[in-house]
Amino acid sequence: MTNERTKPEFDAPQGPAPSDLVIRDIEVGDGAEAKPGDTVTVHYAGVEYESGEEFDSSWGRGESIQFPLRGLIQGWQDGIPGMKVGGRRELVIPPHLAYGPAGGHFLGGKTLIFIIDLLAVG
């Protein structure tokens, strides 16, 4: 059952950071499919590609979060549609699909890795 999952473990990335979005299903769900512009409820954790340092985690706050995809970084807008409720997906997001070049946001210029559990759509 999705809600009984534990916080994901991240494998150390191998090689240079990718220049394009990488989508990898760790577990394919069997529920409703997320579509562009949907509101999604997720549990997620994110680490920096280079350092492996965690910068954010809904698991750390102890509760899932709900938000509209259109309000998120482009890597999430591109990487979550097609995912089904009950699934767990890894996204490796280069800077131009995340927080842009270095200098603005504290994650600017960084490639990010997220592991996302899709709990609900709509």
CATH topology: Chitinase A, domain 3
What is the helix/strand order?
Answer: EEEHEHEE
Q: What is the level-2 CATH architecture name? A: Roll
Largest sheet: 6 strands, antiparallel
Estimate the global geometry from the Cα principal axes. globular
Q: Residue-averaged pLDDT, rounded? A: 93
Total domain modules: 1
Name the features:
122 residues, Chitinase A, domain 3, six-stranded antiparallel sheet, rotamase, peptidyl-prolyl cis-trans isomerase activity, PPIase_FKBP_dom, EC 5.2.1.8, PPIase_dom_sf
Question: What are the SSEs and their pairings?
Answer:
Elements lengths: L21 E6 L11 E10 L5 E4 H4 L3 E4 L5 H6 L8 E6 L18 E10 L1
Antiparallel strand pairs: 1-5, 2-3, 2-4, 2-6, 5-6
Describe the structure.
Keywords: Isomerase, Rotamase. This is Peptidyl-prolyl cis-trans isomerase. Its EC number is 5.2.1.8. Strand 2 and strand 3 form a beta hairpin. The chain is built from 2 helices and 6 strands; from the N terminus they run βββαβαββ. It has a single domain (19-121), classed as Chitinase A, domain 3 (Roll). Strands 1, 2, 3, 4, 5 and 6 form a 6-stranded antiparallel sheet that branches. The chain is globular and about 35 Å long. The mean pLDDT is 93. With 122 residues, it is mainly beta. The chain has helices at 58-61, 74-79, and strands spanning 22-27, 39-48, 54-57, 65-68, 88-93, 112-121.
Task: Compose a concise summary of this entry.
The chain is mostly beta strands and 122 residues long. It has helices spanning 58-61, 74-79; strands at residues 22-27, 39-48, 54-57, 65-68, 88-93, 112-121.
